[in-house]
Amino acid sequence: MKHIGYVRVSTVDQNTERQLDGITLDKVFTDKCSGKDTNRPQLKALLEYVREGDEVHVHDISRMARNVADLIELIKQMNTQGVTVRFHKEGLTFTGEQNAMQELMLGVLGSVYQFERSMMLERQREGIQKAKEKGVYKGRPQQVDREKVLELLAGGLSIRKTAAQLVISVSTVQRIKGQ
């Protein structure tokens, strides 16, 4: 039996050290990306790596998934392979055996984390809207020199040649030309 850790933080700046600290593990898979879906490189690698009898250790439910459907599907997938999943913060272990109380707790806590993410995104949208109203939020800085695009087009260069010369997409040149 191998003890395998899964660690996830949302950004590359966040520290992973507090997760699974003090637990002896044979291997650790670490993702530094959002948990909004299961399209994470190290999560995929973990799912390919685990074998029957292994135990996957996760700090808390929100590190594995941020929505209930993904969470349940991931646990079911690992349990079907004979892999145990242990969430340390919540003190829950899933072996694939029927346990009504653990399934309830998984659903409730998974829903809480999903709700927490939805509220965070809603607050973020509200903050961006207020910043736009105040003229503070300008969006992502422009990466394309619009004047240079218009200058080259006015000089008779084709859309494709302008795009090639400035190393930008044809659609970007077309969008600037149409404005």
Automatic annotation (TrEMBL):
GO terms for biological process: DNA integration. The keyword DNA-binding applies. Signal peptide: none annotated. Keywords: DNA integration, DNA recombination, DNA-binding. It comes from the Bacteria. The active site is at residue 10. Residues 2-135 form the Resolvase/invertase-type recombinase catalytic domain. InterPro entries: Recombinase_CS, Resolv_N, Resolvase-like_N_sf, Resolvase_HTH_dom, SSR_resolvase. GO terms for molecular function: DNA binding; DNA strand exchange activity. PANTHER family: DNA-INVERTASE FROM LAMBDOID PROPHAGE (PTHR30461), RESOLVASE HOMOLOG YNEB (PTHR30461:SF26). Belongs to the site-specific recombinase resolvase family. This is Site-specific DNA recombinase. It comes from Methylophaga sulfidovorans.
